[in-house]
Amino acid sequence: NNVLYNYSAGYTTHTSTNFDHDLVNNYFIMGPASSGTDNTWFQVDKNQSFYYSGNIKDNNLDGILNGSVTTPYWYQGPGTILTTPWSSHTTSAPVYSPVTAFRYASSMAGTFPHDEMDLLIFSQMKTLGKGTTGTGIGTTGPNGNLYTSQTETGLSNNGYGTINQGTKPVDTDNDGMPDFWEKTNGSNVNVNDAMKVGTTGYTLIENYLNWLGDVHAQTTQNTAVNVDLSNYTAGFSSVTPSFTVSNAANGTVTLLPDGKTARFVPTNNFSGMGSYKFTVKGSDNSSFAFTMAVAIVPNGTVTALEEIEVAETAFAMGPNPFHDQFQISTKSNFTYLLYSLQGEILEKGTGNDQATVGHNLLPGIYLLEINSNGRTKHLKVSKAN
What we know:
By secondary structure, the chain is of the alpha/beta class. It has 3 domains: 3-157, no CATH class; 179-297, Immunoglobulins (Immunoglobulin-like); 312-383, Immunoglobulin-like, CATH 2.60.40. It contains 6 helices and 21 strands. Strands 17, 18, 19, 20 and 21 form a 5-stranded antiparallel beta sheet that branches. It has a 4-stranded mixed beta sheet with strand order 1-4-7-8, covered by helices on one side. A 4-stranded mixed beta sheet has the order 10-16-15-12. A hairpin with a 5-residue loop joins strand 13 (251-255) and strand 14 (261-266). The chain starts with a strand and ends with a strand.
């Protein structure tokens, strides 16, 4: 289920040591660097053993995902073809179609929200080879010379890209787990218990990081939370995605009339972890199911957003949620950036005391960054239906 785009050499083995290989449902997509000799399978030695199935190569650079089956070709003589996988993991791990692998990888690979480098890679990969050869965002990617300097990316920070600063949530005992998480899951906010092994068999901080790194949402007792599911499925955007929701735990879930926003309502007076399943399907038969983990925080708990609002009184913004636009007001000059949850800058500007923000946005959750007098503030803003 790997996706390779714009490779000058795809899969290679060149070694004197014998190895076994299982290659299943991978997508090889050619780009400008793939011109000339077809090196999808590069120096695959005769001393290697291969099980392969369902691998696809798209070599026409027409901007459409429409590849055909590819099988290994050999270097200096044929190797051994296996009729069954050599590794038990190949049959025990979930395997998706190559098309679904592409859609999922181009939705969720990299950091989340996506940083500048992620966005560069996604923008090139999604061209599927059709467009202008280059090294920056919006091109199909470099030619066979690939990159010789990070400055060729055109990104900020001398080409490396900038990772935007976040805001540390309240963490009384400084154990890496915010108070809201510990109160939600029953651990002690006054004791460093990050390395305590929980009922899952993992340490408490591992459970927190796993939640943080996957699709997740946060709300408080008796408060519904809306999630725009399209924020997690950008790779399906070109194939008319449709969504379904199901399997709610410790609450109920419904899909709103826009067809892409899930509303989760926690069980009355419950705090703890909830969840639901959502599935995205594309018109090309691609499909993927996600589990949205919802932290239902006890009432009265200070969260990261509330900490900003209490501690930083030099600015105000509202309304939040908003229907059309919202206002930022400060006591000095400021700059602002409005991001999608994928990290894409949707709007930026400056203000002197105030600014009107949020023009032409779709309903959903966004990230707002305000810079004033050397201080940076972040918060979530929501546009209502």
